Amino acid sequence: MIDVTAPRPQQVLKSVYGYDTFRPSQEDVVLRVLDGRHCLVLMPTGGGKSLCYQLPALLRDGTGIVVSPLISLMQDQVDALKQLGVRAEFLNSSLRRPEQRRVEQALCAGRLDLLYVAPERLLTDSFLSLLDEARIALFAIDEAHCISQWGHDFRPEYLQLAEVRGRWPEVPCIAATATADEPTRREILKRLRIPADGLFVTGFDRPNIRYSVVLKNNPKKQLLQFIREQHLGDAGIVYCMSRRKVEETAAFLTDEGFDAVPYHAGLSSHDRQANQDRFLLEEGVIVVATVAFGMGIDKPNVRFVAHLDVPKNLEAYYQETGRAGRDGLEADAWMTYSMADVVMMRKIIESAGAGEQHLWAQQHKLNAMFGYCETATCRRQVLLTYFGEDHAGGCGNCDNCLRPVETWDGTVAAQKVMSCIYRTGQRFGAAHLVDVLLGNETDKIQRFRHDRLPTFGVGAELDKREWRSVIRQLVAANLLRVDVTGYGALRLTNACKPVLKGEREVFFRKDPTPVKKKRKRAVDAAHPETPADKVLFEALRLLRLDLAHAQGVPPYVVFNDNTLLAMVQHRPQSLQEFSRLSGVGEVKLERYGAAFLEVILEHS
Ligand code: ADP
Ligand code: ZN
């Protein structure tokens, strides 16, 4: 029998979260779970997965048990839920005994809507018998790809979650992840016994992120210019490959007047924690980091992710850049790269001593990464295609779409390079080959008698920079490969044959000269435009920071940037008008409405 007095998902969405509409798939998932059925939710970062299990947990009897591998994220989620007036707690190794007791009692007494637990905790006998006493509304398994041996982040303890599922077969189970290719998906469904019709997939596109790649040429200066021109005062992450470079870059940005902190595995855990806390709890902090940083960082208003070095594959790149703009407002993924980066990466991969199969996969992935850097077409299309999703291109929010790259027919140039490589015995690097093509009389040329080759001096139509670009693009197109065991000697690949025979044309992109480009306004701006709006926005940010500091929580759990921007845009004049803003639920209205309204009225 349907209880007509019970609150509906839509009502709870508004009263608790302050949102008017569900995002794609959210409502279907919620209804299915309310119906007691299982599902697997695949959504990109920031897509709104949490709501898919939080909301049904609020509507069903008992406590929703959320399994999450990331301790730091639990704290954040619970903080945010408490701000909404939801009775949420977590259990993990960071809690003291008495605290833990208190949470366990609340669970058994039915006083919790949601409980976050680490997988290893869930699997203990004591916790399982505790669950026997409690009423379970649902199981939610976050980062569900960890259960798959196919996935990139397999965790053995996740395998046992299947047993827990078996113990309470009638309790609905929702698995959620942002990364799962076909085999990984199938494995999750199978292990957790979720029927195939319980799979919900939304596109993986992150339309608010603008992707750009620039050729490396004094990267620190390029970074500085990028931040100064586009992200003054914004929070961001700068990724570098080595600890040393992290330290140098952080010091450089600090000297230039930015609030920048380093983060890498060589720092003491105390320093790492302190720097991470500053990033989360304050506004406008830049973290310069190795890949060690980012897991479990849920800060929604990271406005840019910059890469000073090329990541080792597109999976890593997409995951790292995905930390920008979780709030859906405009954000940048910006990267500098060079041929040397790729050679370096190849060396690292090849010296890791992995098995042949694995090595081959890694090289293949690096090639795709490099191809992405060099592409003259829409970057979003390249990315999504790589992840198995169709995209028509022309996204209007990547550097190539905003300023189409000019291309030229380089078939003859490609043939010249190839023939030059062949005739010099496939033993030389780019610098020497360019000298041969340009007919430079260097010592090395004399020594090897390369001035006698028919290719000597045949390349006067291009300059040195252009030849280097040609070679880079030939490597990216897999027509040449760099031999990293020697000194970066270039070799021909099998794919060269049709080009040499004139059966295949080759097009190159012209290296673009950087120009400032205007973003097309399909994406919501992250900052107000007029001076008056800016002043109000700053005042609201300050108030938010004060309120957050007083409670020891990150500012964005008070209100996120979207809600602040809505305040600036709509300038509500009463609490009633204030309550209509997106992101203002009943509890936040009561707690913060008056304070924010006062600031808004002062600025009217
Ligand atoms: P994910 O877990 O998929 O990375 P989250 O669940 O953290 O994403 O959601 C990302 C952001 O989107 C959060 O700030 C969340 O409050 C917001 N959000 C989720 N669902 C909605 C909705 N229906 N309307 C507006 N904002 C939403
Ligand atoms: Zn594009």
SSE order and pairing:
Blueprint: H1 9-17, H2 26-34, E1 39-42, H3 49-59, E2 63-67, H4 71-83, E3 88-91, H5 97-108, E4 114-117, H6 119-122, H7 125-133, E5 136-141, H8 156-159, H9 161-167, E6 173-177, H10 182-191, E7 199-201, E8 209-215, H11 219-230, E9 236-239, H12 243-255, E10 260-263, H13 269-281, E11 286-289, E12 304-307, H14 314-321, E13 331-337, H15 339-351, H16 356-374, H17 379-386, H18 399-402, E14 407-409, H19 411-423, H20 430-438, H21 443-448, H22 464-476, E15 480-483, E16 489-492, H23 496-500, E17 507-509, H24 531-551, H25 555-558, H26 561-570, H27 575-579, H28 586-602
Parallel strand pairs: 1-6, 1-7, 2-4, 2-5, 3-4, 5-6, 8-13, 9-11, 9-12, 10-11, 12-13
Antiparallel strand pairs: 14-17, 15-16
Bound molecules: adenosine-5'-diphosphate (ADP) and zinc ion.
Description:
Helices cover 47% and strands 12% of the residues. The protein folds into four domains: 9-201, P-loop containing nucleotide triphosphate hydrolases (Rossmann fold, 3-Layer(aba) Sandwich), CATH 3.40.50.300; 209-402, Rossmann fold; 407-509, Arc Repressor Mutant, subunit A; 527-602, DNA polymerase, domain 1 (Orthogonal Bundle). It has 28 helices and 17 strands. The strands form four sheets. It has a seven-stranded parallel β-sheet, sandwiched between helices. Helix 5 (97-108) links the parallel strand 3 and strand 4. It has 604 residues and is α/β, with parallel strands linked by helices. Helix 16 packs across helix 22, helix 20 (430-438) packs across helix 22 (464-476) and helix 24 packs across helix 26 (561-570). Bound molecules: adenosine-5'-diphosphate and zinc ion (ZN). Adenosine-5'-diphosphate is lined by residues 19, 22-23, 26, 43, 45-51, 300, 326-327, 560.
